[in-house]
Amino acid sequence: MRLQTGQSAPDFEVTDSRSGAPIRLADFCGSKLLISFHRYAACPLCNLHIQELAKSYANLASQNLKVLAIFRSTAERTFDQYGSRNVPFPIAVDPTLQAYQAYGIEYSTPGMLVSLIHPRAMWAFFTGHMPGEMDGDIRTLPADFLVSEDGQLEQVYYSSNITQHLSLSNIREFAKR
Questions:
Q1: Lower Cβ count inside 10 Å, N or C end of the chain?
Q2: Would you say 16 and 23 are in contact if contact means Cβ atoms under 8 Å apart?
Q3: 55-71 per-residue burial string, b: 16 or more CB within 10 A, e: under 16
Q4: CB-CB contact of 12 with 99 (8 Å)
């Protein structure tokens, strides 16, 4: 079931792929937060999105916005993909899909198939983000949630295909508030 703007963000516990430490929603209390759900660690489009968020993170963090990226992959696979990269925010894993279920993450075969001809997918490949080993359901659709300092969902974004995430301009606007 899809979440709605104005609801309290559901609590969750995921695992930091680098340290193995648990991460909970309460860890971000008092800060604005982007929770960004991704497909699997070696997904080219997910890698492109993480790169874009990492480039914008200093500006976002200066406005009290934190970012949490969540993958359905195992900690080992996610660490293999991101452990040596300088990503300035936590990359968490949820292989049991508890957070995915709490946030109503959706699946779509047509949404997955559109990526085969989508320009963003071609851009991901062109910039060196090649597909790797898939784990989990290939039909998983990305989703993003902007959470206020007091834990309310300020913006909810469920993608209709695997090439989409909430725009950086929307995220920047939220950070400025």
A1: N
A2: yes
A3: ebbeebeeeebbbbbbb
A4: yes
